[in-house]
Structures are given as C-alpha cells and as structure tokens.
C-alpha cells in the first residue's frame, strides 16, 4: 500500500471559479480506484487529485452503491481522510483508516479545492 497515484483518478466533471486577484477554486466529480488508501499513512493527497490544497469534499460511495465512506479534508487541507465504519469499534469509529487493501475499490467523490 502507498499514497494514491494520480493514475488511479478519473475526472468526470470539473468547474472553476476564478475571481480577479484570487486563486482558482475548483470543484471536481471524481472516480477513484482505492487500493488501501484513506488513513494517515496511505494518503489521498491533493496533488494526486490535481489540487494544491483541499477545501471540502463529499462522502465517498462505492461503484455498486453498497457502501458509503464518511470523508473529510484534513486540518491542513493536504489530504482527504476516510473512515471505514464497517471495521470500527467504539474506540475507533471516528479515526481515519485505510480501506481494506484485499482488492481494489472504486468510489465516487466530489472535491473542492485550489488549483494552480
């Protein structure tokens, strides 16, 4: 397992908001193939998704609509953190975790952040 590679990301739609003298704010609807990413070590980083930093994201939903991963942008805006509640205990229910790496998992997510 490792950080998410940009080759695992497909952009479905993208919208840019450009304000004079301000950085470009972009929203992208993405398909991502995860192979164990989501937690602290195996990250979903801004550069892999084509951003310089994140502002917001939706939850991630699997391609079969069978599971929703709660998602959040990290405090510094550099990564997206996922929670796999199916494997959580009371002590770890709110702790970012890598999705199981036994097989690849395709998810859709909407992400907003700054692009160059």
Describe what you observe in this structure.
- The radius of gyration is 14 Å and the shape is globular.
- With 116 residues, the protein is mainly β.
- It has no helices and nine strands.
- Strands 1, 2, 4, 5, 6 and 9 form a six-stranded antiparallel β-sheet that branches. Strands 3-8-7 form a three-stranded antiparallel β-sheet, with no helix packed on it.
- β1 (9-17) and β2 (24-34) form a beta hairpin.
- It has one domain (6-100).
Structural class: mainly beta
What is the total number of structural domains? 1
Strand portion, in percent?
35-45%
Which residue ranges are poorly predicted, with pLDDT under 50 across at least 5 consecutive positions? none
The description of the largest β-sheet is: 6 strands, antiparallel
In brief, what are we looking at here?
By secondary structure, the protein is mainly β. The protein is built from no helices and nine strands. The chain has one domain (6-100).
List keywords for this structure.
single chain; 116 residues; mainly beta; 6-stranded antiparallel β-sheet; 3-stranded antiparallel β-sheet; 9 strands; globular
Q: What is the element layout, followed by pairings?
A:
Blueprint: E1 9-17, E2 24-34, E3 44-45, E4 53-57, E5 60-62, E6 68-69, E7 71-73, E8 79-82, E9 105-115
